[in-house]
Amino acid sequence: MKFTANKSDLMAGVGIAIRAVPSHTTMKILECILIEAKGSEIILTANDMEMGIETRVKAGVEVPGTVAVDARMFSEIIRKLPDEIVTFMSDSDYHILIKCGKAKFSIGGKSGEEFTYLPPVEAEECVTVSQFTLKSVIQETIFSVAANENNKVMTGELFEIRGDIFRVVALDGHRIAIRRVALKETFENRKVIVPGKTLLDMSRILTGEMDDLVHIYFAKNHIAFEIPGTKMVSRLIDGEYFNIDQMISGDYETKITVNRTLLLSCVDRATLFVREGDKKPIIFELADQEMHLSIESPLGAMDESLDVAKEGKDMVIGFNPRLMLDALKAISDENVTIYLVNPKAPCFIKDDEMSYTYLVLPVNFIR
Amino acid sequence: MKFTANKSDLMAGVGIAIRAVPSHTTMKILECILIEAKGSEIILTANDMEMGIETRVKAGVEVPGTVAVDARMFSEIIRKLPDEIVTFMSDSDYHILIKCGKAKFSIGGKSGEEFTYLPPVEAEECVTVSQFTLKSVIQETIFSVAANENNKVMTGELFEIRGDIFRVVALDGHRIAIRRVALKETFENRKVIVPGKTLLDMSRILTGEMDDLVHIYFAKNHIAFEIPGTKMVSRLIDGEYFNIDQMISGDYETKITVNRTLLLSCVDRATLFVREGDKKPIIFELADQEMHLSIESPLGAMDESLDVAKEGKDMVIGFNPRLMLDALKAISDENVTIYLVNPKAPCFIKDDEMSYTYLVLPVNFIR
Questions:
Q1: Number of domains forming the structure of chain B
Q2: pTM (2 d.p.)
Q3: Residue A255 is part of which domain span?
């Protein structure tokens, strides 16, 4: 096998494929990127058995062929090359020779026979959105998936299609994050649970541009994402997701609107008094058109008042400041509206169009 | 005690003082910054018993006084404040109240009675250089001090004054880094060993500007650095430094001049094949006007040829690529000149004016 490619093109391709290389594995072949040279391109494939990525790089192929190469070593070599044309060769023993400028590298490769290719995806549906949209909805919800694996379903995000609405949900038992986007067409109703890690990796590959598209393919046990030159296939998480609509329906007693940046800065300051393992809440005290925020812990105390526009009853309610902070950071509106029922019931932060809904459970406290 | 100060001035001052707060200590008082309000400023002092920093911040002092405050908590609070005027108050029980905008913080302070002030420095000599010079000579040598404490002297840098020459030396048993600057005046000969940590912290406080000055005070057991508003005092390391001149004197058999960036990139690529604990050398093979560089390890192999201007004998010599890389990175000249004696003797990289000298020991190898 022999091909030539641009260093920068190759670097970009390796940077994408390496996201599917697991950081810890006992299976040596999973630490590899498979390189296939054919036609006028090379295909780089990596697969951690849960999620796989295939990406194409323009190349001058002199001798077509296939070889598997240690992903980290290959990536480091490419990164350190001068910005010139790279010549890549491998022989029948899978010895690899990489030349660029005056530099020559030789490393060992593998046949790739043991390599697991991406599973074929028999798509039942394809939904297309902009890369901006998919990247945003992931980034604005992913922090709410559960960090530990006790409940596998919570480590993923619900991707739900209902008519022309695409809804993404993440929850961890203390909070829920929901983003809702309108699609250009109407689709069959569909619900799948996508691993959080898959989405995090995908969000880093997406450009975030309005004009760039991403096709999302839904299959029975898999989801696939396709952007120009790159395809990512991931297993879905088995199981039934929570009934979200039940959790977010219902009335409110108090509604407040407040400047998001001011509230965010204040809640951020409150996090100074929270230490790992101790659950001191920030207390929101609503009276008239003012919200008094305070926190007290063995480390010290903080309090601050913010002007708010309030409808409904006065109320005193406590929250974990870190959960409140995450939600406020995920919103970009100038003002946010918070809906409260009582000090034991979750609060909702949502906009009128319900393009976002953040639910945060309150924390009990004694004054 | 009560004062007001700008958030940004306060942040800058705390950012400087906190460098003398140890990250691990059993003495709670060392985790504090001492705040003294008097006249039209506050003085922030921190001291880890080896090195102390005192820095002044312009303030409106209403009630003069002194209080010690946990450095990290104080720094975090100031950082998260809005960019406005900060009011700081402490009462007779050393309770501290910090107000800024609508935010109010209360934290516990300490009397500061146990606090160790900076030791008085009876300067025997004061040498003044630009902050640019001091910052540069530290940054260009500090990587060569020994990381482990087996030989205390090696963890520091030699600061040597000889007439109008200021020389800074660092070595770790495998290499030596030397920088030499001409002073504007002539001083008495002097040699002190300054702790590497002190110098690293000082280099981060220095502006690096040609027009900003730093005064270096030499005393019996201490060295002090003074820049506008800030004074740093450090203990010196006891002991006799190595006889450097003996090590760097002597003739050479081969002299090569090579483009620094090309050599650096090549040596950097060679580091890919070095793993923790294994000492594979990069081999420099000099023949005619070409230098062939190669490395071979269980991870793979690399080789490359560079054009050089050579005087003297052909030679084959091996180096630890990381040590060679550090030296090449610390130089900014377009070309470097390397002096070689034989494959068992150290190589020197130095300029004609000897403003820098880097010595790297070779590594034995079998071909």
A1: 3
A2: 0.92
A3: 250-360
